[in-house]
Amino acid sequence: MLSKVLIANRGEIAVRVIRTCKEMGIATVAVYSELDRDALHVRLADEAYALGGQTAAESYLNTAAILEIIAASGADAVHPGYGFFSENTDFARAITEMGVTFVGPPPSAIEVMGDKISSRLAAERAGVQGVPGRSQTLEHFQEVVDFGDEFGWPVAIKAAYGGGGRGMKVVADPLDAEAALESAQRESLNYFGRDECYVERYLTWPRHIEMQVLADSHGNTIWLGERDCSPQRRHQKLVEESPAPNFPDEIRQAMGAAAVRVSQACGYVNAGTVEFMYQDGEFYFLEMNTRLQVEHPITEWVTGLDLVEWQLRIAAGEKLALTQDDIEHRGHAIEVRINAEDAANGRFAPSPGTLTRFDQPSGPGVRLDAGYAVGDTVSQYYDNLIAKLAVWAPDRERARRRLLRAIDETVIEGVATTLPADVIILRDEAFINGTHSTNWVENSLDFSSIAAPGSATDAAGAALVRQDVTAEVNGRRLSVAVWLPEGSDPPARAGTGSKPRRSHHSPVASTGSGTVSAPMQGTIVKVSVEVGQSVEVGDTIVILEAMKMENSVRSERAGTVATINVAAGDGVAVGDVVAVIE
User: Fold this and answer.
1) Is the Cβ–Cβ distance between 273 and 210 less than 8 Å?
2) Which of 8, 169, 348, 556 could connect to 180 by a Cys-Cys bridge, CB 3.0–4.6 Å?
3) 308 near 17, Cβ under 8 Å?
């Protein structure tokens, strides 16, 4: 068995791995950037070493620094988590060449499946067809146009060396092709260190179904069941569940067998996920994620297995103690991702900041995997996942209601979160009936009921902020919102000592008029206009990157660009004026 594992990651996945290691008696080593010096994963690990730097490139993607720490710490294994180096062939090879165990597949398997183009070809050799597309990297946006004209619009541009929706852009018509390819390449380079992209057909109403597999080094490969990850926004998963609703068992069995064939075709070892698109009774190979998935807790709920434990055991050379016939599924599990995003009116804008309050849910069948605690800062430089909330119940409807109860108990202040959007998703009839798709959230759901966070002023112009308080009217307890001078205590606290009503996210200031301001902290990656240019309402003024996501900052009025105060590469804070429209 392994004796000391270095976790080359941060946030909730680093915390997750550390906890299983502790239960198995394995020592843990954390690494951290300057911004993560006091992060939760650092506090929980047995040892911690500084990587230096702030951005991912300066820290968690600094190969030389990580290799030095492996040697200095005496770690005999490295767990990459997900994101960062988890699907990087060169990193995995560098680890194994040191004589250190890489907790994941062999570099050769990552090489085949990490490249989405070669993975399509490998799946085809295994007799599993993918979504129609081009199996070559894109050299020019005209190739996107030609593909769309031949196979129909919309089409999807995807990062060849990525996953999880990062670097993916849906192109609706030829006029958008150039900007979409440029944006996809930027995101891919920022998140995965490579900018190669390819194009494929975009299915109009599919479901995203993925199969969890385990494979040991003794030739045994099994599938553990499926996860439905269809509720998505910007191709980022919001809600996942297992088993998939309204999913024929004959399709389940065929998809599981296909996942095993794809895994065996690339010599896969360890935990992995084969992803499919399912539409009109047919399924298509999408990609294979050669790592642990964010949504692995729901598979653990329904199978009773600890996937991280099996990752470590397989990496240590153990043979699977399970056969396909041993896998049993019990009940239903659903997970929501709690991201630091402001979902008001469907914006889903990144919301970095410091957690000033974090009330965590509890009770039967509730699990919270968090990477942050009160006082920790969610930085603009990293992924915006704060925590994952997963529940289990004997059936789907009870699991859905349990999750709503757990969300109601969860209170996060200091940043906005996706929890209000999760509630809308879980209560919608399409989700309840299992008739949703990957396009459903963006095309069908109405998030206007999520109040737009903002500020106000009193008659004298002094700033006011919203306070949610509880009050008693004729003996009945009610929740009300009042606007008070910034920094003042709510009247309920002053008068009765009662706490203000819990809300899932705290207010964030908004902007307006002809002054175009940064809605969040981040980095300008592109200025889309020039001084003197005429613009209409909704035109993109700049593109701002924050939390590994590109966000268009748009004009709120028609007019002429009078001034531009930023250039590509500039860092901005919330409220910084980037341009003025007259």
Assistant:
1) yes
2) 169
3) yes
Residue where a domain terminates, one of 178, 201, 224? 201
Residues 6+ apart with CB under 8 A from 102: 77, 78, 80, 92, 95, 96, 315
Q: Token pair 């183009």 is at which residue?
A: 117
- Is the same domain home to 265 and 408? yes
How many whole angstroms separate alpha carbon 5 and alpha carbon 95? 12
| Structural domain of 190 | 132-201
In a domain, 502, yes or no: no
| Pair 47, 155 in one domain | no
Q: Give CA–CA dist 165/491, Å, rounded.
A: 45
Condensed to tens digits (0 to 9), the pLDDT of residues 327-377 reads: 999 999 999 999 999 999 888 888 999 999 999 999 999 999 999 999 999
pTM of the model: 0.80
Return d(Cα 161, Cα 140) in angstroms, integer.
18
CA distance 521 to 350: 9
Question: 77-79 and 101-102 as β-strands: parallel, antiparallel, unpaired?
Answer: parallel
Q: Where are the alpha helices (DSSP H) in 487-574?
A: 491-496
Between CA 217 and CA 511 the distance in angstroms is 56
